[in-house]
Amino acid sequence: MEAIEKFRKTDWGNEISIGTDLENLINSEYQTNTVFPKKENLFKAFELTPLNQTKVVILGQDPYHEFGQAQGLSFSVPNDLKAPPSLRNIQKELVDDLGIVHQNDLTPWAKQGVLLLNTALTVIESKANSHQGMFWEDFTKQVIELLSQKGNVVFVLWGKNAQSYRRFVDDNKNYIISSAHPSPLSAYRGFFGSRPFSKVNSYLDHPIDWSL
Fold first, then answer.
1. Active-site residue set
2. Regarding beta strands 154-158 and 56-60, do their DSSP bridges make them parallel or antiparallel, or are they unpaired?
């Protein structure tokens, strides 16, 4: 698939391997199912946020599974769509934390070094978590370990799925922000009031402009 070959030519692709099982899954699922994001956006997060520019990781679970939502960036949707509940809660916390109102498309964050990564990069239409446990975990583990070795990266882990990758992060070399997931089911259990955006910037020498 062209998207895989394009990824392999990035600085990420020099360090991260896409195993045969994962490559077969990607190729077969796009042929037999309606899969999100679109093939050309599969590795969009890595295209917008090169390895040597990554300062922050916001780790989601899997892409939005309704038509037109998934962009290849965790939690982000196009501006002409209604924000899904988790994104609305992220936007609410951003207002409470920094007084910033933000659009639905989080591409400007990605271009500043915020890797908007999901633990599984694909999902079947209308079937949340349909590709969890199907070879993406090793890929994500490689990404987290690579960034952990790089050091001085802020890992933002919202919810149990993201937090399960904490064991791959050297917290002596990096900074971890962990809280409940922004989903309506859990946001009131510790996401609201966690002030992740100001915490990220307190760690970085060159802060993220979350208003962009």
1. 62
2. parallel
| Closest C-alpha to 153, from 170, 136, 178 | 170
The torsion angles phi and psi of 161, rounded to 5 degrees, stand at -60, -50
What are residue 58's DSSP bridge partners?
Answer: 116, 156
Q: How many alpha carbons lie under 13 Å from residue 73 in its C-beta half-sphere?
A: 22
Distance from chain centroid for Cα 14: 20
- Cα→Cα distances 74→7, 41, 42, 65, Å: 17, 12, 11, 12
Over residues 172-183, the pLDDT tens digits come to 999 999 999 999
For the segment 70-83, what is each residue's pLDDT rounded down to a tens digit? 999 999 999 999 99
Assign residue 188 a region (left: φ > 0; alpha: ψ between -120 and 50; beta: otherwise): alpha
